């Protein structure tokens, strides 16, 4: 369970603690976190009530797909998302992304019709500990199962064009190499449509299409 370690601060404790909550979100620094807190203080009670309810409801209404690990609306009838349940999807291609928003961005480009796997994070620089949220063992088992059933022909590694993205590509290629050599499948990387330093979630539709089309 994730725990918040609140720091002692001379400022009002509630403001400081709420700011630290925002700081735990990706891409949010201390200054921006405090701006969020003071912005909330200016909102009326109804906004705060609705905001709080949505924060509580989101964990109840969304669940993880047992197959690809993406979040989808919980209808209490299916354990897999609509992409994984779609018989028209190409079962021979698996595209691995870091997070849900990357999956959504690629889907909106309408240039890919295979399956997905959400890894949950990226591999840090050499020497750093692999974060618990990175589902590397689960990915290995999934690829092994799919290749053994002779369904999987290609694994596309679709990560941001950053150092962490490159580390992740190399790490996955190394652990999947025994499977790829034994079974008739290959590992592909996104093409040069993505400029160095580009975050996948911010790539536009044409850039994603070119990156997928020119993969190698």
Describe the structure.
α6 (136-148) runs parallel beside α7. The chain has 216 residues and is of the alpha/beta class. The mean pLDDT is 87. β5 (154-157), α7 and β6 form a beta-alpha-beta unit. The longest helix has 20 residues, at 163-182. The protein contains 8 helices and 6 strands, in the order αααββαβαβαβαβα. A 4-stranded parallel sheet has the order 4-3-5-6. A two-stranded antiparallel sheet has the order 1-2. The chain has helices at 13-23, 30-41, 45-61, 82-85, 100-108, 136-148, 163-182, 205-213, and strands at residues 62-64, 71-73, 90-97, 114-118, 154-157, 186-189. It folds into 2 domains: 13-62, Helicase, Ruva Protein, domain 3, CATH 1.10.8.420; 87-213, Dna Topoisomerase Vi A Subunit, Chain: A, domain 2, CATH 3.40.1360.10. It is 44% helix and 12% strand.
